[in-house]
Amino acid sequence: MLAASGTIASAATVATAPAALAAEGPAVTSPDGLLALAVSTDAGRLTYEVTRAGRSLVLPSALGLRLTDGTTLGSDVTVTGTSSRASDTTWRPVWGADPTVRDDFRELTVGFRQADGRTFNLVVRAYDDGVAFRYDVPAQPGLPSLQIVDEATEFALTGDPDAWWTPRSLAYDGDEQLWRSTAYSQMGSSMTPATFRYADGTHLSIHEADLVDYAGMTLVKEGQRLRAALTPTPGRAAAVVTSTGRATPWRSLTITGDAAGLVESHLLENLNPPCAICDQDTSWIQPTKYVGIWWALQHGAFTWETGPNHGATTARAKQYIDFAAAHGIGGLLAEGWNEGWEGSWADQDFVNATPDFDLAEVVAYGKSKGVEFIAHNETGASLDNYERQIDQAFALYESLGIHYLKTGYVGQIPGQYTYSQRSVNHYRTVLEKAAQHQINVNCHECIHATGEVRTYPNAISREAMRGQEYDAFSEGNSPEHTLILPFTRMLSGPMDYTPGIFDIFWDPRNAGRRVHTTVAKQLSYYVNYFSGVQMAADLPEHYEGRPGLEFIEDVPARWDQTDVLSAAVGDHLVTARRSGGEWYVGAMAGERAQTLRYPLSFLGRGDWVAESYTDAQATDYTTNPTALTIDRSVVTRKDTFVAALERSGGQAVRFRPATAADLAELPRYVEPELDVVSVAAPASAQEGDLVTITATVANAGSVPGGDVVTMSVKGGAVTQSRNVRVDGDGTRTVAFQARLTGRHSARVIVGDERVTVRIEHPSDAVPAPTGLRVTRFAGSLVALAWDMVPGASYQVFRRSADGIYEEPIAVLPAGATSYLDTGVSIGGTYSYVVRAVVEGRTSIPSNEVTQTTSAQQVQVTWRVRVPDFTPPGDTIYMPGSIPELGPWDPGKLAMTRVGPNLWEASLSLLEGTTVDYKYTRGSWAKVEDWGEIVGTNNRRVTVSYGTTGAQLVNDTSTDPATPDIHEAVRSWIDVRS
Fold first, then answer.
1. Where does the UniProt annotation place the signal sequence (predicted)?
2. Which residue out of 154, 469, 480, 928 is catalytically annotated?
């Protein structure tokens, strides 16, 4: 077989002649001349700076390695020499976003000697899409090994660019946080990648590449600079202990002129060595789609451990395989197939299956249907236990013909962190051993990718981010979060977000959970998110008969070309990818509804069929996220296609060459264009009243169209705009509302249409309430008050999602001048007016007030009753999923005895926080174990502000009718009645 990752073309020779020193120090410039990285040794202090087109991006920033002997390589240096080279080659990935990758760079190596005689080199590269540098430390008598405490490496960005980052955390799930969007000056210490946008549109992302036998990098904010901070090893001074005669990982800065360039960049892959396994057969490395016994586990409908609700049974696996085979999906993941889920997950058996799961039978059944089995190894963060079994397990999988593996590392690794050197070496060992057994690896809860997919293309995907599973068991992922991922985490390598949820509101535990997208956005993920394994993550029964399933059937997992058509971090992304002779486009939006237009110039000549799946006119993120419009029309490369997107909405399109039958049956594409065709309003209104104006908007196009429609009142300050989406060849009525004033009339204008409303001034009008104000708010309530109108009762109105005051949300009796609205949610913006009613006549509205709700602190008290047979000298503890409880530390939060067999603990938590928890007597060997509260099944509560800001979680009931999650402890795993 052709060595698929080898160099296939060379366009430049390599030069290694010494470079002359410029007055400001040695420098290297990108092939296109735009980027430059200069090195300086002013007064012996080693620094670098970066410019683009002559404009400074990174101010002089320190370089160096801090060693355990108290010295710093790079602290007192002189230059011993320089050499430079240029390289322009092209390599062919085994699989990837593009068929070939150009590796074109200029490289500068600067040699240094310290005052203490030690030597090292700084290797610097400049590409058209970024710069990178690494330390090369040769073997030398004065430095027998490298024992690195930390790095002195800095990134001092100029100005105050926009920043997208996640807080630095050494916890196992440190990468699984919502992304934050702030100014650079306001960001804190961060994980990587971290991405920045300068005022001129230049984008820069800081990360690392070729991470081998080293500690993972994070970023510590020190003043207005970021420093490369290595993940430590607990109990050891050195974060890294390694040999000399090696180079450190690259410190990379991907730099592009716009956001699209970030996504299209191959910088991190290019900074890694060529394929290490391509001298062998690599035909087993194949991107694929898969289904899984997974989403129901995340929702608690099935269990990982054996029992009445065990998910991974032979029968259920076969059902999922049948579904996959029927819909052209190539793989089945079954979490919980193996023994060892009942405890802490750290002592699992990766060879032996549970009694109700026949591994060989399931694998064989899948192969008979063309469906590969994806093994799952959850280590429970026990690297030692996994490494003891890995050879035997991988040999078993190879013998059965299993080529796909999902690994997991839930929990804190004993004596290590997820990103420490020992852990980094473990993840590489797994990749290497998997390759020896022809296994592709999808790693979850492991360190961020660093472009190693070039070297080990069996690194088919990984998590290292807050994926869609969080929509099942937490407040979920924001619409903006999913639009930041492509410009941050996805830059480092393929990303398993587990898309394809169709039943957006499925919530079997009634825990207030939902997926924070429309269905159309779920479809767009298959194109916008790059991964070698793409999941159809929902339950088979949630797909049957649902529009949109055909796109999942059609969309490939393997691509031959990628073009980003439009992009803005956190706001929108439109990606076109080619597979063979077909093109696919994914378009998706963040927090705001918007309409995107993209030219089809990427298509070949001739006629093409566009099969589009788009947010429908009826789609509403809050109330109707599953509505989907499917259109088929004939297009050419001269057309401009339109994606009219709801908030957190999307569009997915398949473009295939048109057949003669298509041309005979399908209409030609007509670009959507919205037009206001009529406007209606009441003939008259009392001065100061809120008047509803309706406009009919038509779309003569062949697919859903969108535009901003504006209503204004001539001569007044009233202007309102709506983002309107209308189905192809359809109409839609849009409502506005304006407070009209004037002596005689008001002229209302919408588009090119207008209507006149007569203004009346009745002498006996009911006075409007005055002084409407917000007196208190939280994430779940808004308290209102107003001044009394004599003899009046009141109607309270809250503005709808469409921006209209419609029916009152409350009707209050005379004398009531306050109202508590508990029908709100965290992070919403709500507007209110109040009308007075006297003898059946209604006033004009009061003044308007607007309040954005935010989560408030709640004093939460847990009270639990334990059995009489609980050892009298033991203390009760409460481990759980939040930091205050460990997380999951069985001996961290001690409760207080408040009565016979009664214990309490209190915490101040933000409302909306979901807490999973259990009760123990100080260790997992003494955890409660009874009823439904066994194994990985936990108690759960969502923090609620209520009306007072205090909440009692009462786990004291002994009534069997009480749900187990709030019943008293009935038994301990080590002590039973």
1. 1-22
2. 469
